[in-house]
Amino acid sequence: MTKTALILDHIYSHEKNRADVVYMTQPVGNGKVIDYTWQETLRQARAMAAHLQSSGLTPGARVAILSKNCAHFIMAELAIWLAGGTTVAIFPTETGETIRYVLDHSEASFLFVGKLDTWPLQAPSVPATLPCIAFPLAPHNDFAKWDEIVSKTAPLKGEVHRAGADLAMIMYTSGSTGQPKGVMHSFERMSAATDGIVKNLIETMGDRDDNRILSYLPLAHVFERAWVGSASLCHGKTHVYFAESLDSFIQDLNRAKPTMFISVPRLWQKFQQGVFSKMPPAKLNFLLSIPLVGGLVRKKILKGLGLDQVLVAGSGSAPIPAELITWYRKLGLNLLEGYAMTEDFAYSHNSTKDINAPGCVGVPLDGVQARISSEGEILIKSPGQMVGYYKRPDLDAEAFTSDGFFKTGDQGSQRADGLLKITGRVKELFKTSKGKYVAPAPIENRLNVHPMIEMSIVSGVAQPAAYAMVVLAEDLRPKIQDPEVRAHIEAELTSLLVRVNAELADYEKLRMLVIASDAWSIENGYLTPTMKIKRSRIEAAVDGQVESWYQQSGVVFWA
Predict the structure, then answer these.
(1) CA angle, corner 31, sides to 26 and 37, nearest 5?
(2) Which residues lie across from 337 on neighbouring strands?
(3) Is-contact 442 423, C-beta < 8 A?
(4) pLDDT tens-digit profile of 345-356?
(5) Domain of residue 350, residue span
(6) Backbone torsions φ then ψ of 336, nearest 5 degrees
(7) Which of 233, 422, 532, 557 is least enclosed, having the fewest CB within 10 Å?
(8) Are residues 416 and 538 in the same domain?
(9) 239: in domain
């Protein structure tokens, strides 16, 4: 990849050449929205940058953002960069304990507080001595207000340039396997990755002036930060819409009418289950098989989901079942899977229109090198590679090979055409008492495609055989007290277990399928803020019951 301008250079160009073009649309309640042009976005960012500097922000100092996605998140990041600082974004659903850890570990000098659902539980973890600034949509607080500051502060003038080696951001991982780690990204590497992302999007969608996207996955996570936040700042031709709330999500989608839509596997599955709750899979498949009727049904479903204008849809952050990709493509949605991580600024692999296959996560993006180690681990060298882990040089030494490839921790294989297939996580492999390793992810994907199942884990460390635990689809959970419904669920899942086991090696076969009594959520600690399963947390919660499960005679039962 050739050396290109840094992201701030692109932003100054948009400020000058696209001044009156609307960049962001923010819902503010009661169906009302506020549009922010490039000129207004930079005016507010420049004013806040001047305020940060006048308040004593030193070069390279860390400034934290605790907020759900909103226009002021983007403005605040720009202000931090213009003021000479480094951004530290905190997931808006994090517990007070983690918020305090990140603020202390990063030595944050300021904190921006924005849209939040659980602020009363989080607020006590913010040090009383930390200067805080509230976004317009923040919950009630006594902090200095963004609008008041920018209205009385003269904006910074001219073009502030940052060195390529300067830290742009520290991204704290979502903590699926323990305490979050701070991943450091420089302007040079972040910009190189972002330029590559924009090039990929243009190749996929064309260099359009009417790109639209809904930003709703956490901007604190690398997937949204790179492919939506940074890519829109770099490209300049994408209109970013924000979601107001979970309840208004479909209305938000229909307002945006996105041409590009990215999501995570769990949400793609929930969308599918929402369709199935209105039309059983067998009936839908029959209607889709009728030439004229099938086309009308496809359009109606995609319009109902708010995805009828989408030119390219993406899935990332976790493995997605191949059957789910096939189902969406049958509807006419060009769903492509990608693969990357926080440590390479979400710039690693992506499927293309010409090279893709359900079950594979794509080919290396421009400038990315990939290989498989002798142990089967995927190794990546990316233009977006992190500078290192903040304050953890010990982890840096463990994370890279001697020739600079990052050890992903994922197992996989690479086809001759470059397509990469993920077969599991190295650390998630477990041994049964038979001494054989079991990879849970491929088995979980087989289970997760069933319309009755929202998510699952496969476990069974040191047990005679593996077992699966599943969470039922959301529309089924309120009905489980009905004996007929329970009997139907048990019969369906028993049949599923037989089919799945028929596809597995003897040492992988599942002894039983256990239906979880409660849903797994971010709020109860079973999912990360990006909706990845906290495997060890779930296993620990049921540890006292596992032995008794193996004593039961049935193969499907309720926890």
Answers:
(1) 25
(2) 315
(3) yes
(4) 999 999 988 888
(5) 260-308+310-426
(6) -120, 140
(7) 557
(8) no
(9) no
